[in-house]
């Protein structure tokens, strides 16, 4: 019997994008899934959109809502708590999963029992859906890579639920860095994280996305890296990476956005994943 996958979506004021995100899950070639959606007290029409899908697709769509806005970590943890799948697939409310995503990630995890979480390459798209770049993380990062920054695209990942529960899920006191903190917890516990070198996901990323990254979040990221470095017992030179988020925090967001447009530009060569 096919393993059940629980796709979890934390959403807040995404009435204009949530339908495409849900449609991308409905269009998956892998059919043994449920989609658990937590609305984080949206003030727009997000709830109405989700309820429309719930009415049409029944038990495939599980809807819960927060009374107050509590942040994505809290919302994802609520989804994880009621998820019935062996595997947890993250999906952001303004992104798109390509049709073979779940199928290929389930196959990868089934064939690689030593891997706890697996992400994919991703195309970056703007508000018009136009592709402007490609994010290609390392396929098998080593421990030292992780102190330099996240080594997997969070929204593209599929995670073994038992391993996710073992590290205590997401830290609900963190925002904008809760995913990185989760990966570091898993690495420190000896879990392995990989990336399938194939584009199976589309990330909605524009200049406005960078404006949401305040200095406070950069500080949280720096502290997260500092504690991880201490626990990893890596060479002293790696302590310089804890300064990276702080430096990024004082660089104008416009410049970081332009740098990433160059870094992730579409000239990047695509490598197909071999089954």
Characterize the structure shown:
It is built from 10 helices and 9 strands. The protein is of the alpha/beta class and 275 residues long. It has one domain: Spore Coat Polysaccharide Biosynthesis Protein SpsA, Chain A (Alpha-Beta Complex). Strands 1, 2, 3, 4, 5, 6, 7, 8 and 9 form a 9-stranded mixed β-sheet that branches. β2, α2 and β3 form a beta-alpha-beta unit. The two termini are 21 Å apart.
> Helix/strand-derived class?
alpha/beta
Strand content bin: 15-25%
Task: Give the uncertain stretches in residue-range form.
Answer: 270-275
CATH superfamily membership: Spore Coat Polysaccharide Biosynthesis Protein SpsA, Chain A
Measure the end-to-end span: 21 Å
Succession of helices and strands? EHEHEHEEHEEEHHEHHHH
Number of domains: 1
The residue fraction in helices comes out at 25-40%
Largest sheet: 9 strands, mixed
Gyration radius over CA: 18 Å
User: In CATH terms, what is the architecture?
Assistant: Alpha-Beta Complex
For the record, the CATH class is: Alpha Beta
Write a brief structural summary.
The chain is an alpha/beta fold and 275 residues long. 37% of the residues lie in helices and 21% in strands.
Properties at a glance:
single chain; 275 residues; alpha/beta; disordered C terminus
Topology at a glance:
Blueprint: E1 5-11, H1 18-26, E2 33-39, H2 46-57, E3 61-65, H3 72-82, E4 87-90, E5 96-97, H4 101-111, E6 115-125, E7 131-135, E8 158-160, H5 161-166, H6 178-188, E9 192-204, H7 207-211, H8 215-232, H9 244-250, H10 253-263
């Amino acid at each position: 019997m096919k393993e059940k996958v629980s796709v979890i979506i934390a959403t807040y004021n995404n009435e204009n994008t949530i339908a495409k995100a849900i449609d991308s899950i409905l269009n998956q070639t892998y059919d043994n899934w449920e989609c658990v959606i937590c609305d984080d007290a949206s003030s727009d029409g997000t709830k109405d959109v989700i309820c429309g899908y719930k009415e049409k697709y029944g038990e495939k769509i599980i809807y819960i809502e927060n009374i107050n806005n509590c942040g994505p970590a809290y919302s994802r943890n609520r989804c994880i708590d009621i998820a019935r799948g062996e595997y947890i697939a993250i999906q952001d409310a303004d992104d798109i999963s390509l049709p073979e995503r779940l199928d290929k990630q389930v196959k990868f995890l089934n064939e690689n029992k030593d891997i706890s979480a697996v992400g994919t390459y991703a195309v970056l798209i703007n508000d018009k859906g136009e592709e402007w770049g490609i994010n290609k993380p390392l396929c098998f990062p080593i421990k030292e890579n992780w102190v330099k920054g996240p080594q997997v695209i969070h929204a593209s990942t599929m995670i073994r639920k038992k391993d996710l529960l073992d590290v205590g899920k997401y830290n609900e006191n963190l925002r904008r860095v809760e995913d990185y903190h989760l990966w570091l917890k898993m690495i420190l516990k000896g879990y392995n994280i990989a990336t399938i070198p194939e584009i199976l996901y589309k990330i909605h990323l524009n200049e406005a996305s960078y404006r949401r990254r305040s200095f406070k979040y950069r500080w949280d990221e720096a502290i997260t890296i500092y504690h991880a470095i201490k626990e990893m017992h890596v060479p002293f030179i790696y302590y310089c990476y804890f300064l990276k988020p702080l430096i990024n925090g004082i660089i104008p967001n416009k410049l970081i956005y332009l740098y990433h447009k160059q870094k992730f530009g579409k000239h990047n060569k695509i490598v197909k994943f071999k089954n």
